[in-house]
UniProtKB/TrEMBL annotation:
Gene3D superfamilies to which the protein is assigned, alphabetical: Bacterial extracellular solute-binding protein, family 7 (3.40.190.170)
Taxonomic path: Bacteria, Pseudomonadati, Pseudomonadota, Alphaproteobacteria, Hyphomicrobiales
Region Disordered, annotated ranges: 33-53
Stretch forming the signal peptide: none
PANTHER family per record: PTHR33376, SIALIC ACID-BINDING PERIPLASMIC PROTEIN SIAP
Family matches, as InterPro entries: DctP_fam, TRAP_DctP_sf
One matching Pfam family: DctP
Keywords (A to Z) from UniProt: Signal
Protein name in the entry: TRAP transporter substrate-binding protein
BP-aspect Gene Ontology terms: transmembrane transport
Species assigned in the record: Vineibacter terrae
Claim: Metal-binding is one of the keywords in the record: no
Keyword Signal set for record: yes
Length: 397
């Protein structure tokens, strides 16, 4: 800026690269102008004094005023530009794995609106529903860590390949409802935070989908033997292992891929919640449901790029954290609260045959899966073993 002002000064006063000759040229020119001037019409001056060369000093004064105006204009423009830059909102993209009208996407948009209001517009989060960005739900840890988006929805089952410990709650029949998830969340967060940081992301907050059960078309599943030979969509390897042990085969599909797979017969059932069947409009191809409460549908991690988060000014970051802390329990409560209503809608409006298995059947399945819990944990090192041990102790399982 200083060099620029100096350049403006030189241009304003007519300074050349050889300052002395430039000055001499101006003086000569001024004398010539003075000689050509008519006698002054004002009061006479004493003969021993020459009239002052008003032309030279008048013009220099005007040049000085002009120079000051230019400099002030430059400084004013720079200050205005600086203020505009400081006031420009930070824009973040957020990936949601479900469609634009799904309750999850709508609740993320409500979260984004609250952040924008709380920060006075300084942080503007644009929620991108499934299909708007060229990413799959299984890729969100990487694309968020690479800053292709700054926020993303990381459902536990879909990110199990990137961060296996993040999906421990999808071990069949281990964490079976929202209350149990809240009880073990501090344990999950403790172990997953370290793993997420390795990929350049961290958890801003978490929510959860309702309890996951099995829905499908064709012959209803009502006994353990009814699982045999069925093709059921799963969201991760742990669900796939359960289906394998029950004699069924698993089909790995993201949420957006399910309708086509059901239409083409690639899958005849899937593990999800009634909440999602209504939200995603899957009721068109659902005829029955087996409600054995396989596991809770969370955590669903809201992941943020660490570098983008750290780059926010302290005030904006604090307000983002405050909104996240306040909004997360409301998000979870809304999702969980919808389940009973949505199951009733499936039963009464869409005539879906919903079957709740007897306690003995579920207890037998829990005992059947316990050895797999230990096998899975051992396959993920000391942290996997310790994490499972702490969760089982917290839940009394």
């Amino acid at each position: 800026m200083e060099r620029y002002v100096q350049a403006v000064d030189r241009a304003a006063i007519g300074e050349t690269s050889s300052g002395v000759s430039g000055s001499s040229h101006r003086i000569s020119a001024n004398r010539h102008d003075l000689a050509a001037q008519p006698p002054a019409r004002s009061r006479p001056v004493a003969s021993c004094h020459a009239a002052r060369p008003r032309g030279r000093f008048g013009r220099d004064r005007m040049l000085t005023i002009h120079r000051r105006s230019v400099v002030l204009g430059v400084l004013g423009a720079a200050a205005a530009s600086s203020r505009a830059t400081a006031q420009s909102p930070v824009k973040w993209d957020m990936y949601s794995m479900v469609g634009v009208t799904h309750p999850i996407t709508l609740r993320y948009k409500a979260f984004a609106d609250e952040v924008k209001t709380a920060t006075g517009g300084k942080l503007d989060i644009i929620v991108r529903p499934a299909g708007e960005l060229p990413f799959r739900a299984t890729e969100v840890v990487k694309v968020t860590g690479d800053n292709q988006v700054q926020l993303s929805e990381g459902y536990q089952g879909f990110i199990s390949g990137a961060v296996p410990l993040a999906s421990i709650a999808s071990l069949p029949f281990l964490v079976r409802n929202g209350e149990e998830l809240e009880k073990v969340w501090p344990i999950i967060d403790k172990y997953t935070a370290v793993e997420f940081k390795k990929s350049g992301v961290q958890t801003l907050f978490h929510h959860t989908w309702p309890v996951q059960n099995i829905f499908g078309r064709g012959k209803p599943i009502k006994t353990v033997d009814d699982f045999k030979g069925r093709k059921i969509r799963s969201t991760d390897g742990k669900q796939a292992e359960m289906l394998k042990q029950l004699g069924a085969s698993s089909v790995s599909l993201t949420t957006a891929e399910v309708p086509v797979a059901m239409e083409r017969g690639v899958a005849e059932g899937f593990i999800t919640a009634g909440f999602n069947i209504i939200g995603a409009k899957w009721y068109e191809f659902v005829q029955w449901g087996w409600l054995g409460d396989v596991h809770i549908g969370g955590p669903d991690y809201t992941l943020v790029n660490v570098a983008a988060y750290d780059k926010l000014d302290a005030d904006t970051r604090a307000k983002l954290d405050a909104v996240a802390k306040d909004y997360a329990p409301r998000f979870r409560a809304a999702n969980l609260g919808d389940e009973a209503k949505d199951l009733d809608t499936l039963k009464t409006k869409y005539k879906v045959d919903l079957f709740v298995p007897p306690k003995e059947q579920v207890d037998a399945l829990i005992e059947k899966m316990k050895p797999y819990w230990e096998q899975w944990a051992s396959g993920h090192g000391a942290n996997g073993v310790a994490m499972l041990k702490e969760i089982r102790a917290a839940l009394g399982k």
